[in-house]
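Q: What residues go here?
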């Protein structure tokens, strides 16, 4: 069944997952969202936020405690076989056979999707090109780098030309070059019309790739929108990063109660201050520093980003959780 142009590719409605009920972990606690055709939609959240559990329910690997996901009009609960054919999933734990070559892996999984004969050979060839492994197609996968295995994992998800490509943290634990390759591949696939559901705990990736970002924490979506919409939630505050002659913890003590400061913390060896925008702020900070012999070596004003949004909403830093 083909999509009508403006119907969502995927509609997720009130998904809940409690592992080992009644007392087990409530991993997903009422998640709803929808993905428009041609959209890259990211679930951004720290370890344990519930991203993989959400995706596992959407692609039919886990049965929901409550709620449903509908893809192309098919409910994952009521019509799982049809629904699954419209999705391609690259799981967080790479699932490829080390003893087989890249081509043999793709052929094996292609047959599982019902591809045969010339169509299978053709798709395997196309996918090898897409994932940039055509020249390594005959090598045993056991010898591949983790970046190459990840690319093959994505290739498997692409074989049957799914409406929705689901990628669960596809860049974790790989070198920067492979990471760049995967991000570019996602961008190219999306430009060619594939809708993507992407999970990550890297805010830079979510920002670069996504039309829409849902920030997840403790099994819930705590904010959802475009990057610009999310950042707006932080409000009209300045973000200052200061490097000082003394350790940042000491500088924090000096500045944290200066008038206008709304949040203060140490990150990456710097003192970070959020403050209501105001001309008098910097002079006040310098004055206070001078009074205790603290020297300011540099001041940088940062635009708010997704990290700021997470911190604003949860009081915790995304990268430290
Ligand atoms: N099979 C399981 N049985 C019991 N609890 C589980 C199981 N899988 C996950 N959990 C718990 O559910 C919560 C959500 O886990 P999940 O793997 O969905 O998070 P995640 O956002 O994908 O995290 P990560 O970024 O580490 O992959 C965590 O508290 C986790 O410990
Ligand atoms: Mg996960």
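A:
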């Amino acid at each position: 069944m083909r999509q009508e142009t403006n119907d969502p590719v995927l509609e997720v409605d009130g998904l809940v997952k409690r592992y080992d009920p009644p007392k087990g972990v409530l991993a997903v606690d009422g998640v709803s969202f929808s993905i428009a055709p041609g959209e890259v939609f990211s679930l951004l959240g720290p370890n344990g936020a519930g991203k993989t559990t959400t995706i596992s329910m959407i692609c039919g690997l886990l049965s929901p405690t409550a709620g449903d996901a509908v893809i192309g009009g098919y409910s994952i609960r009521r019509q799982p076989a049809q629904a699954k054919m419209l999705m391609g999933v690259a799981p967080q734990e790479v699932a490829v056979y080390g003893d087989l070559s890249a081509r043999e892996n793709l052929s094996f999984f292609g047959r599982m999707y019902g591809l045969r004969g010339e169509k299978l050979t053709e798709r395997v060839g196309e996918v090898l090109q897409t994932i940039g492994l055509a020249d390594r197609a005959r090598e045993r996968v056991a010898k591949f780098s983790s970046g190459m295995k990840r690319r093959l994992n994505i290739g498997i998800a692409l074989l049957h030309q799914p409406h929705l490509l689901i990628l669960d943290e596809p860049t974790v634990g790989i070198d920067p070059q492979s990471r760049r390759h995967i991000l570019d591949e996602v961008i190219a696939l999306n430009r060619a019309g594939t809708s993507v559901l992407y999970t990550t705990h890297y805010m830079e990736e979510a920002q670069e790739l996504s039309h829409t970002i849902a920030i997840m924490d403790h099994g819930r979506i705590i904010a959802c929108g475009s990057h610009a919409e999310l950042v707006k939630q932080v409000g009209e505050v300045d973000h200052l990063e200061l490097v000082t002659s003394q350790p940042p913890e000491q500088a924090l003590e000096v500045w944290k109660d200066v008038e206008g400061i709304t949040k203060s913390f140490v990150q990456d060896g710097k003192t970070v201050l959020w403050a209501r925008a105001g001309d008098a702020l910097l002079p006040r900070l310098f004055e206070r520093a001078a009074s205790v012999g603290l020297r300011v070596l540099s001041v940088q004003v940062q635009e708010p980003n997704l990290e700021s949004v997470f911190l604003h909403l949860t009081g915790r830093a995304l990268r430290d959780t």
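A: Context that may help when evaluating the design: Residues 141 and 155 are 13 Å apart (CA to CA). The chain has a mean pLDDT of 93.
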